[in-house]
Design a protein that fits this description.
Structural class: mainly beta
Order of helices and strands: EEEHEE
Helix content: under 10%
Length: 78
């Protein structure tokens, strides 16, 4: 999906994301970034699917897959 070596610290890339949660399909986006404060010395690539926190409870198992240039997030393997 993204080569984090090509991102500068503090730079954010937004890509499409689809979530399959509780039997629903939710279109969203995912941000992929390296925090500016650690980028030069200890890069910590991160990603965050928008809306995810409001859709699942703590302790929910999730599966993440990159498919067709977008992130897919599922709360079941089906």
């Amino acid at each position: 999906m993204v080569d984090f070596d090509e991102l500068s610290p503090g730079e954010k890339k937004i890509m499409p994301c689809v979530m399959y949660i509780s039997g629903e399909e939710i279109e969203s986006q995912v941000s992929l970034f390296i925090p500016k404060r650690r980028g030069e010395t200890q890069p910590e690539p991160r990603f965050w699917p928008y809306k995810l926190a409001s859709l699942v409870d703590a302790g929910t198992s999730l599966w993440f897959t990159a498919k067709d240039g977008r992130l897919e997030v599922r709360d079941s393997i089906n």
